[in-house]
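Example record

Each entry pairs one chain with its bound ligand, zinc ion.
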Amino acid sequence: MNQLTEHELSELTRQIIAGLGEDPERDGLLKTPGRVARSLRFLTGGYHVDIDKLLNGALFSVCYDQMVIVKDIEFFSMCEHHMLPFFGKCHVAYVPNKQVIGLSKIPRLVDVFARRLQIQERLTQEIAGTIMEKIAPQGVGVVIEAQHLCMMMRGVEKQHSAAVTSAMLGTFRENKQTRDEFLSLVRSR
Ligand code: ZN
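Structure tokens for the complex follow.
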């Protein structure tokens, strides 16, 4: 990937502003290209995170084999079709085999994949697939409920519709009881 410098990225943003018929030289917009460039870098920072490094020191061996669930993880991502935000809540569960992940690392893992250009379906799969790969649990379940600004601000303009996606791997896919337990824990407030 050939990455632009912050200056080059600002210059492109300046061209977009001008191309939309605005005056990039007016007071309120003078510093906007630089801000947009830095904000885009932050919002797509997930491309540059080394997941093994992130989880380093946070994988523990245990005898525990009950469901671990972290729910209502807030996330903010950007849809790859319009580069507009989609955001909502992510619920992650797994049944350990021999290892668990430090609980605080799960929201961090969600951020890694959310801070990329995404579609909700892939975001869901990538979180589940990574946990499967890193600690080989008996199974993983991920449910994401999100609102998409590309739907809310333009096009269909459905203000309150939320898209729900799920990824069920291992025992969450094979065992209805495990899956139902997870889904009922997600639904309980
Ligand atoms: Zn979109």
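Residues 79, 81-82, 84, 148, 150 surround zinc ion (CB under 6 Å).
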